[in-house]
Amino acid sequence: MEPGTVRPGGRTARVRAAVLEAAGDVLAEQGFAHLDLAEVARRAEVGKTTLYRRWGTVTALVTDLLEDMAEQSVPRTETGALLGDLTANARLVRRTLTDARQGPLFKAVIAAATCDERTAAALRRFYEVRIEEWEPCARQAVERGEIPAGTDTREVIRAVSAPLYYRFLLDGGLLDDEAAVRAAGAACAAAKAGAFTTDTARPRSSDR
């Protein structure tokens, strides 16, 4: 079992919570390059040996932090309509990325993931957990007949957050509520038009 993967209770759980909060603070303030286990221990007010025994490396600590963030994230909203559900998802992503603490934290982790495979794997897992949480919204839309059968429902959810992450990391544009609403609307329209159906489910031109 990897260091930091145990989910204890009691005092050990309180220590883990304090350490992960301190690690998140350091990441948000200083970035991955300056994330030091000794500094995290000092902020969390725990012994350095505890961190080295429990996590061992900075990467293991970041992995645990991302897993905890995925577990603690807000559950999906169900409005009964695909557009409403996707808008709720987009607004949640937008709030996370523009949060004074979580925004810089995500930038630090994403930057680290470009050169550290374990951090990249942890980031992918974080994203997949969130996709798994929201995918039923698109699946229910298929069942209601809002979008075509054969739609790749996971891709519908990815299509909502992708433009928001792009603006957050590269575009430099204002990540406001309008951007979230627009991303949700575009993903919904594309899904209804069949843009996310599999090749086998997509109608041929001769069938139209």
From TrEMBL:
InterPro entries per the UniProt record, alphabetical: Homeodomain-like_sf, HTH-type_TetR-like_transc_reg, HTH_TetR, Tet_transcr_reg_TetR-rel_C_sf, TetR_C
Limits of the HTH tetR-type domain: 13-73
Superkingdom of origin: Bacteria
RNA-binding as UniProt keyword: no
Pfam family membership, one: TetR_N
DNA-binding segment(s): 36-55
Record Gene3D superfamilies: Homeodomain-like (1.10.10.60), Tetracycline Repressor, domain 2 (1.10.357.10)
UniProt keyword terms in alphabetical order: DNA-binding, Transcription, Transcription regulation
Keyword DNA-binding: yes
PANTHER family in alphabetical order: HTH-TYPE TRANSCRIPTIONAL REGULATOR RUTR, TETR-FAMILY TRANSCRIPTIONAL REGULATOR
Name listed for the protein in its UniProt record: TetR/AcrR family transcriptional regulator
Organism: Amycolatopsis acididurans
